[in-house]
Q: What sequence folds into this?
């Protein structure tokens, strides 16, 4: 049975794939088997579209290099383990106070551009936040006793007399997250406190085919619950586990919050569903989603959906609930991967009432009229693509008081499918650098209903709510 372990941070994800050594497994039927044979390791860094990929030797070198370099960065003292370039596949070097070069010399099957090359080292530049998210992902791995348990972290203290720490870098790095072994690195670097023992994480039993949703009994101390590739069928017991969880933690039912989460879930799954090959039928899943939009569990609603889970991106999108708070509310969604290659997402039980747009709103009538005209002119000037769609594309578009686009949301399926034929993604990306999600902006916004017609006509009207 193939097993996956995923350790996720906002700017870095480690994905390990391997097998169990059945000769050493005490319980062959355990729900979360031990990953003792590493077949493949992937390291994803934010802003790079492709992962660094390698085998066991690559992964061991990566965790050694990351741990040793983090110690050097925190102490601002050269670490002999970092300086020994000739014996490691992976090395890290400081470029400046906020830039660090990660170099991988061999054993790589793909680079950040998706290309392969033998003998050519791969080099990427990490900022400090990305670096320490990578450190935290390594922490999560070492805290997981069910993954490569024989691989241990060895840290060597530096001489206290040399400690001249870079306080500016520490202020940048610490908010990025400091886990168990990150704290050990810092402690050893400054020789202030003994390194804490890394204790096994408290992990709840999980049904392979359905969920990685944490229960209220998970300790507040960061723990790790990596996932395994679903291989068994959906069972009534697994559904009951999800329903039991919903009886013990609050469920998000507010229509406006569900609407916002619905969009976040779509924005995660839609770009990740790359291989939209022919499906045996529409695949339907029940999702558990945290208040921040993280996918924390899923359940196939029938046997075919369970069997075809590898045709969806859900296993790789499942969030590691290592740092989740007990009793955290969750929302339920219905996700459908259709045979026509469309993605459909909606609240599991629908909306109790019509949702509203959240956040502060511009209400001055004359200002809204002015912004309406400005938005129309901006879109009209930038819409140069000849329509290929057969029905109207409908969007909610929000602008700030200067008329700069702050948010946009498709309102019908065809608007999702043909959004690239509108200027909206380019307008949004030119401001925020991404089309994936709206920025966290507290300023008041004016909302409009925007319609692109197949005849090339454009309609912009003040927003009156969802219909």
A:
């Amino acid at each position: 049975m193939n097993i996956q372990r995923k350790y996720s941070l906002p700017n870095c994800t480690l994905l390990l794939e391997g097998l169990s050594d059945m000769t050493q497994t005490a319980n062959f039927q355990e729900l979360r088997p031990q990953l003792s044979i590493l077949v493949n390791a992937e390291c994803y860094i934010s802003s790079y579209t492709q992962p660094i990929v390698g085998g066991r030797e690559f992964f061991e070198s990566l965790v050694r290099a990351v741990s040793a370099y983090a110690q050097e960065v925190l102490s601002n003292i050269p670490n002999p383990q970092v300086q020994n370039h000739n014996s490691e596949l992976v090395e890290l070097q400081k470029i400046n106070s906020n830039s660090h070069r990660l170099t991988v010399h061999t054993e790589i099957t793909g680079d950040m551009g998706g290309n392969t090359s033998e003998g050519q080292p791969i080099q990427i530049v990490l900022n400090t936040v990305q670096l320490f998210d990578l450190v935290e992902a390594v922490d999560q791995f070492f805290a997981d006793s069910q993954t490569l348990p024989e691989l241990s972290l060895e840290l060597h203290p530096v001489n206290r007399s040399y400690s001249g720490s870079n306080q500016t870098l520490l202020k940048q790095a610490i908010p990025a997250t400091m886990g168990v072994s990150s704290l050990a690195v810092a402690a050893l670097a400054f020789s202030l406190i003994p390194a804490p023992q890394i204790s096994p994480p408290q992990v709840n039993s999980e049904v392979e085919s359905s969920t990685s949703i944490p229960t209220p009994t998970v300790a507040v101390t960061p723990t790790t619950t990596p996932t395994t590739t679903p291989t068994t069928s959906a069972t009534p017991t697994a559904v009951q586990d999800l329903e039991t969880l919903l009886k013990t933690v609050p469920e998000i039912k507010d229509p406006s919050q569900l609407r916002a989460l619905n969009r976040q879930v779509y924005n995660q799954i839609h770009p990740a569903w790359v291989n939209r090959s022919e499906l045996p039928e529409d695949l339907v899943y029940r999702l558990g989603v945290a208040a921040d939009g993280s996918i924390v569990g899923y359940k196939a609603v029938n046997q075919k959906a369970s069997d075809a889970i590898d045709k969806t991106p859900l296993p790789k999108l499942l969030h590691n609930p290592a740092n989740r708070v007990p009793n955290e509310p969750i929302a339920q969604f219905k996700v459908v991967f259709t045979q026509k290659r469309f993605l459909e997402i909606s609240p599991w039980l629908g909306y109790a009432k019509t949702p509203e747009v959240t956040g502060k709103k511009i209400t001055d009538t004359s200002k809204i009229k002015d912004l309406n005209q400005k938005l129309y002119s901006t879109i009209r000037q930038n819409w140069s693509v000849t329509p290929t769609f057969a029905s109207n594309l409908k969007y909610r578009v929000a602008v700030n008081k200067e008329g700069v686009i702050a948010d946009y949301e498709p309102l019908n399926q065809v608007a999702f499918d043909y959004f690239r034929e509108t200027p909206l993604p380019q307008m949004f990306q030119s401001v925020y650098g991404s089309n994936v999600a709206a920025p966290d902006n507290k300023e008041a916004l004016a909302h409009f209903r925007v319609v692109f017609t197949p005849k090339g006509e454009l309609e912009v009207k003040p927003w009156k709510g969802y219909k």
